[in-house]
Amino acid sequence: MNIGAIIKLNRIKQNLTQEELAEGIISISYLSKIENGKIEPNDEVIKLLCLRLGIEINRQIDDETKALCHEWFRLLLSCTDVERLKEKYKEVNELVNTIQDLELQILLKIHLIRYYLKIGDQDLALSHISQIKGFSTTFNNIQKYYWYKFNGNYFYIKEEYNEALRFYTLSEDLVINLELSDEEIADLDYSLALTYSKLRITTLSLRAASKALEIYRQIYNFSRCAECHLILGISYRRIHNHEAAIKNYKLAMELAERTNNKEIIHLAHLNLGYLYYAEGDTKQTIEHLDMIVNEEDSVLSDRLLALTAIVEELYKNRDFLEAKKRIREGLSWIDSTNKQQNLLFYYEIYTYLYLIDSEDEKFEDMMVNEFIPYLEEQKDYARLTNYATLLANHFEELHKYKNATKYYKLVNFSYKQIMQI
């Protein structure tokens, strides 16, 4: 039990300096050693410090309270019902703010990171991370495990995948020394699989997704099984094993239909569309992507993602009439209220509109001054490779070889970034 971490947390929370807390009780240097876990103070010192902080120390915790805390931990692991999570948080909130079992108290504080992420409040999550970072060096192994993992969750949500992977890997290194539930281990493997997939580290994504799937099958978690099959399908597509990819996409769809998970069904159709696009099967590509485009209940970003893929396929096959029909449909979904969050799709749609209408000046201006810089800023190297190639080819066809060379170099750079991730 590290009471020093609890004392430091409450001191910071109350905006007290070490000098203000220590005055008349102990020296500042002694308090510093307590807070950094270098000294275990006697009960009298603990009592006086806690009295000044207005907190109560109880080194024991009854079974009922402990069970409530761990029930909340399990809900944070598996529940997606935000209202249910909020209700349960109300029950444990008093425990978060009252010192009881010290190890559990720290675990409660760390799990708040995941709670804030689950309810969609990234700012509160970051604020809480900053608040407890100062005494994270005092954590024991189980506390470190969750600290690393929830930091990984935060950076994954922020789409900072390299940083997410760094934290997930730190968590993974601790697993062998801890007694964790199978579901907890599966959740970490699943998180790793997602992150590896985002970074296009395909071999490791396959391994992590397979490990997670094995556990989820045993505990009959059909939704997560479906998600694992999706990751496997994407990974197999990337290594050109299309037969295995199709098999996994269809398994994902079957499991999602069993649990009425429309999001997974849409993602399966989307990825099947990409696969058939890679195979050059235009009919199958559009058929699967239209399952999302025509579903008004789909998230707008998913519909736009599917529609831009259809536009690209139609442009590639020089079906400009149908492509422009689809372009008009996509642009009707984007207005001043949602343009910023759908800027990627806005640029993609106008890319093909300008190419079809042979509006070279508008095409070049948007690509050079807006779209390519946007992709560079986002570090979206996969799309950057694609659209820089498109621009380079355009300049080459116009015999603007100097410009073409510049963007071919950007293509090579972007491709290297994908390979090095």
Condensed summary:
The protein is an all-alpha fold. It has helices at residues 3-13, 18-22, 28-35, 43-53, 63-78, 82-96, 102-118, 122-133, 141-157, 161-174, 182-198, 202-218, 222-238, 242-258, 262-279, 282-293, 300-316, 320-333, 343-356, 360-378, 381-397, 401-420.
Walkthrough of the structure:
With 421 residues, the protein is mainly α. The protein is built from 22 helices and no strands. The protein has helices spanning 3-13, 18-22, 28-35, 43-53, 63-78, 82-96, 102-118, 122-133, 141-157, 161-174, 182-198, 202-218, 222-238, 242-258, 262-279, 282-293, 300-316, 320-333, 343-356, 360-378, 381-397, 401-420. Helix 12 (202-218) packs antiparallel against helix 13, helix 15 (262-279) runs antiparallel to helix 16 and helix 18 (320-333) runs antiparallel to helix 19. The longest helix has 20 residues, at 401-420.
- Main structural class: mainly alpha
Estimated helix fraction: over 70%
Give the overall form: elongated
How many strands? Answer: 0
For the biggest sheet, the summary is: none
What share of residues are in beta strands? under 5%
Radius of gyration: 26 Å
Low-confidence stretches: none
Helix-strand topology string: HHHHHHHHHHHHHHHHHHHHHH
Let me know the average pLDDT.
Answer: 89
Head-to-tail CA distance between termini = 39 Å
What count of helical segments does DSSP give?
Answer: 22
Looking at this protein, list some descriptive labels.
22 helices; 421 residues; mainly alpha; elongated
Set out the fold topology.
Layout lengths: L2 H11 L4 H5 L5 H8 L7 H11 L9 H16 L3 H15 L5 H17 L3 H12 L7 H17 L3 H14 L7 H17 L3 H17 L3 H17 L3 H17 L3 H18 L2 H12 L6 H17 L3 H14 L9 H14 L3 H19 L2 H17 L3 H20 L1
Helix pairs in contact: 1-3, 1-4, 5-6, 5-7, 6-7, 7-8, 7-9, 9-10, 10-11, 11-12, 11-13, 12-13, 13-14, 13-15, 14-15, 15-16, 15-17, 16-17, 17-18, 17-19, 18-19, 19-20, 20-21, 21-22
